[in-house]
Amino acid sequence: MCSAALAVDGEVLAHKELNDGYSHAERLAPFVDELLREQDWQVADLDAIAVSKGPGSYTGLRIGVSLAKGLAFAANKPLIAVDTLEQMCLHPLVQKELEYLKDPLLCPMLDARRMEVYAAVYDIGLMPQAETKPVILDDTSFETYLEKDAVLFFGNGSDKFKDVVHSPSAYFVADVWPDARQMAPLAQMAFDADRFEDLAYFEPNYVKPFQGTTPKPKV
Questions:
Q1: Is the per-residue pLDDT at 187 higher than 60?
Q2: What pLDDT does 172 receive?
């Protein structure tokens, strides 16, 4: 998912998104430019720039953070970093499910290939119950939480877990992706608390070191 949003006081004015694979390099900067032009704004009119800090695709994170840091540096604006898994908890489909479940734990998952995911656990107040980490999924994953509470799993990594978990306390929501619109209230909270990043030293949360691969020769 490549997305950008323009927000005031935590409320989204406009957004653009595209979910067709790795399109950040081609679409992210034009999205930002289009959003500003449509509101007749310039980067200088912004109070801060927020970026999703990961975990996620190495390439997507690098492009997003590079663009955000470049804009912030050029316009002398503060940079805000929003946790990708935390913002997924504010997705409308997740929030709608909370109307039917009584105080579940929230477990956003991003696919990390094979049977591995990047995951974290939050309560409904977004207080972390388990730090972000890579998890290799099997039928015993998250059993400590499932033995005590209902747990709502979502994100593109949760599809794999749905096939192996057997606990009746596990619930699932489909079609939940990281989205810039859900960053807005978290970015506003960080702005109000002056929680800004160091432009020179900020790096995304890759969770694991990047491992490059050699492309297979085309036949």
A1: yes
A2: 98
Q: How far is CA 51 from CA 7, 67, 210, in A?
A: 13, 9, 20
Closest CA to 140 of 164, 160, 162, 120: 164
Alpha-carbon distance of 134 to 118, in angstroms, equals 4
Q: Identify the CATH homologous superfamily for domain 2-84+178-192.
A: ATPase, nucleotide binding domain (3.30.420.40)
Mean per-residue pLDDT, 84-99: 96
Helical residues (DSSP H) of the chain, grouped into ranges: 24-38, 58-75, 84-88, 92-97, 143-146, 158-162, 180-192
Which pLDDT value is given to residue 77? 98
Q: Classify 72 as helix, strand or coil.
A: helix
Look up tokens 């002056």; give the residue: 194
Question: Binning pLDDT at 50, 70 and 90, where does residue 24 land?
Answer: confident
Residue type, 129: Q
For the chain, the domains span 2-84+178-192, 92-173
End-to-end Cα, the chain, rounded Å: 31
Report how far residue 48's alpha carbon sits from residue 177's, in angstroms, rounded to the nearest whole number: 24
Alpha-carbon distances, residue 24 vs 63, 106, 166 (angstroms):
7, 28, 37
CATH class of 92-173: alpha beta
Peptide bond just before 78 cis, omega within 30 deg: no
pTM of the model: 0.91
